[in-house]
Amino acid sequence: MSASLRIGIIGGGGWLGGAIAGSILGAGLVDSRNLSLSYRSQQPDRFLNSFWTADNQALADRSDVILLSVRPDDWRSLDVEASGKLVISVMAGIGLAALSQRHKTGRVVRALPNAAAEVAKSYTPWIGASDITEGDRAVVRAIFEACGSEDEVARESDIDYLTGLSGSGPAFPALLAAAMMSDAVARGLQAEIARRAVNTVISGAGRLLERRDDCPDDVVQTFLDYRGTTAAAIEGMRAAGFDASVAKGLSAAFEKSVSMGKTS
User: Fold this and answer.
1) 69, 104, 111, 141: which sits with the fewest CB atoms below 10 Å from its CB?
2) Residue 79 and residue 104 in contact, taking contact as beta carbons nearer than 8 Å
3) Quick one: how far is CA 264 from the chain centroid?
4) Whole-angstrom Cα distance, residue 190 to residue 229?
5) Is 85 within 8 Å of 105 (Cβ atoms)?
6) For 208-254, what is each residue's pLDDT tens digit?
7) CA-CA distance, 102 to 98, in Å (whole number)?
């Protein structure tokens, strides 16, 4: 992928769009002068050497690759013609066919990075339409490897499922952390100490899993086999329906992703 490639991010003023911009600039995938970003109301005070605009069509016209980083509800009123260019959507729910029809190009990709792109630790599954080239695939891989790691998946339904699983980013670990902290405070621990203890457990676990790359089932089983306090906690959580609650939540996210596409 050449740094001379012109990349535009519609929604570059937002959290995820800005995170992707920072990652690809940091990796040297694009020269700052060849990066275009759009905003809705006020230009952010960052990426000052790049081209900023409130005109999304102007952004598309000066770009070879266009990333769509807007809310699905906002996309429905987005009138941008890409004229055969490579369009990469990082929106949940909007299908390849709808993207191709709206933006007048067969070279469309659905990708689902998460907020950890801000620290180059996102996991991004993606799928392309039949018209994308091997060169397009190389561009997609380079962009999302700059944001963390990526996988090309076989089916659009895989993207819809992973929208809830990996697209959640820090949400699910934060949900667990919030429940742990709430219990600690209810038992009389000072809130600041509870927060520090919980956040360190979550962040430390993430780093350890990343370094060792163990199967999560194996990690859990190791603690169960030890038959200590952690085993007692795991068994208590499972008895209370932990596994079933997670499956129910992921199912709800999958159904929501599919329904969003049907209303596009």
Assistant:
1) 104
2) no
3) 20
4) 22
5) yes
6) 888 888 899 999 999 999 999 999 999 999 999 999 999 999 999 99
7) 6
